[in-house]
């Protein structure tokens, strides 16, 4: 590892490809930058990366091509390996040009080249895995990392051969954690005296959840509740048109939300995918939830994530194939008609929150450089 005695460090955070890598990476970047350190965030050319970066003009972003591992023996494998090689070369140049001291990979194969390049250039290297079970990429990335950071306790035993595995929670952007007097009801033009159901499908929306919720709108209307639905950019118009058929249901439908802090503050219950960042935020803001794991997530990691919240009493867990108007309405009623259950779920969620994950990781990055 490089030894540096000056007060500030330069960290390269590889966090491209999906909101679940981007936003925790941004969270660590925000803390380091606020303490006067240099930070470069490596993102991909995907739309979600550009969208996420647009909310943080104070941070420096650089783009790298997104890399997903094809099936072994697929003809795409050659392009993938070429991408890794070119990515490593480009990262070595970034590391030298910016005098990077430490590389943090937030997951995915997009993190591999920066970590490998960091290793070759003598930087400290760390990865963060936010899910209950690590993906293939992070199992490989761990081999090139001095320290493996896990968001959840359940993950730590999945790196049995690594000598330094630490559980630090999954970072939440400090812009979301900042105290503010913004009125969430006014922001979303919702009623203060109605209970609010938040629907969110992770960083890109969830078609299965969007469509199932569409079938339950009549039931929600009968309950007299209001709905804040973050549909994702792809499904936004379809979802908006379904809601338009229910003008008596108080509603706010959005494609993407830059103020998730207000979305969580307005919510009495959330129906959500069980992506790791969404869950760490639900815990932080103490929002009871009905979690619907993405059925095709690698090694079914979203179900493993959700089981932790279900077991702790912070969430209900429902498979996507079980969603229909009745099951959704019953689940929502079971919380909205039982204030004791709602309160217990809220407390259980808050207990699962790790408050200073971004600060802990930032401290560690500085320590690995300055000793
Ligand atoms: C389909 C899939 O494989 N998804 C994975 C992906 O989820 P995904 O990319 O959906 O990420 P998460 O659910 O972990 O987090 C979503 C993030 O997007 C933010 N957000 C979302 C909507 C919006 O309008 N505005 C906004 O800011 C949320 O506040 C949160 O910070 O990465 C996660 C972390 O590895 C994994 O756990 C998920 O399994």
UniProtKB/TrEMBL annotation:
CDD domains: GT28_MurG. GO terms for molecular function: undecaprenyldiphospho-muramoylpentapeptide beta-N-acetylglucosaminyltransferase activity. Transmembrane segments: none annotated. Pathway: Cell wall biogenesis; peptidoglycan biosynthesis. Residues 196-360 form the Glycosyl transferase family 28 C-terminal domain. Keywords: Cell cycle, Cell division, Cell membrane, Cell shape, Cell wall biogenesis/degradation, Glycosyltransferase, Membrane, Peptidoglycan synthesis, Transferase. The keyword Ribonucleoprotein does not apply. Pfam families: Glyco_tran_28_C, Glyco_transf_28. GO terms for biological process: carbohydrate metabolic process; cell division; cell wall organization; peptidoglycan biosynthetic process; regulation of cell shape. It catalyses: di-trans,octa-cis-undecaprenyl diphospho-N-acetyl-alpha-D-muramoyl-L-alanyl-D-glutamyl-meso-2,6-diaminopimeloyl-D-alanyl-D-alanine + UDP-N-acetyl-alpha-D-glucosamine = di-trans,octa-cis-undecaprenyl diphospho-[N-acetyl-alpha-D-glucosaminyl-(1->4)]-N-acetyl-alpha-D-muramoyl-L-alanyl-D-glutamyl-meso-2,6-diaminopimeloyl-D-alanyl-D-alanine + UDP + H(+). UDP-N-acetyl-alpha-D-glucosamine binds at residues 18-20, 131, 173, 203, 302. GO terms for cellular component: plasma membrane. It is found in: Cell membrane. Residues 12-147 form the Glycosyltransferase family 28 N-terminal domain. Belongs to the glycosyltransferase 28 family. MurG subfamily. This is UDP-N-acetylglucosamine--N-acetylmuramyl-(pentapeptide) pyrophosphoryl-undecaprenol N-acetylglucosamine transferase. It comes from Prosthecobacter vanneervenii. The gene is murG.
């Amino acid at each position: 590892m490089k030894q540096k005695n000056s007060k500030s460090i330069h960290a390269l955070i590889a966090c491209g490809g999906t909101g679940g890598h981007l936003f925790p990476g941004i969270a660590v970047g925000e803390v380091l930058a606020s303490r006067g350190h240099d930070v470069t965030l490596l993102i991909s050319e995907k739309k979600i990366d550009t969208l996420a970066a647009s909310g943080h003009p104070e941070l420096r972003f650089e783009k790298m091509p997104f890399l997903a591992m094809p099936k072994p023996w697929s003809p795409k494998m050659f392009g993938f390996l070429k991408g890794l090689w070119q990515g490593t070369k480009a990262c070595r140049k970034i590391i030298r040009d910016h005098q990077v001291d430490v590389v943090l990979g937030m997951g995915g194969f997009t993190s591999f080249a920066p970590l490998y390049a960091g290793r070759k250039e003598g930087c400290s290297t760390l990865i963060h895995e936010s899910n209950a079970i690590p993906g293939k990429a992070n199992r490989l990335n761990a081999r090139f990392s001095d320290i493996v950071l896990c968001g959840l306790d359940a993950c730590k035993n999945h790196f049995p051969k690594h000598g330094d595995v630490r559980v630090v929670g999954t970072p939440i952007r400090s812009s979301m954690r900042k105290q503010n007097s913004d009125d969430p009801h006014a922001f979303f033009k919702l009623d203060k005296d109605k209970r609010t159901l938040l629907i969110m499908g992770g960083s890109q929306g969830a078609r299965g959840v969007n469509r199932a919720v569409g079938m339950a709108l009549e039931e929600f209307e009968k309950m007299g509740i209001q709905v804040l639905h973050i549909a994702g950019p792809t499904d936004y118009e379809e979802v908006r048109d379904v809601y338009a058929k229910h003008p008596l249901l108080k509603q706010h439908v959005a494609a993407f939300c830059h103020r998730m802090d207000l979305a969580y503050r307005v919510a009495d219950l959330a129906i959500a995918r069980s992506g790791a960042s969404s869950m760490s935020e639900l815990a932080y803001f103490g929002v009871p939830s009905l979690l619907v794991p993405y059925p095709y997530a690698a090694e079914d990691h979203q179900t493993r994530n959700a089981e932790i919240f279900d077991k702790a009493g912070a969430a209900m867990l429902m498979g996507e194939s079980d969603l229909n108007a009745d099951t959704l309405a019953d689940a929502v009623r079971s919380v909205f008609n039982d204030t004791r259950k709602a309160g217990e779920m809220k407390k259980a969620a808050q207990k699962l929150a790790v408050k200073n994950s971004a600060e802990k990781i930032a401290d560690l990055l500085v320590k690995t450089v300055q000793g």
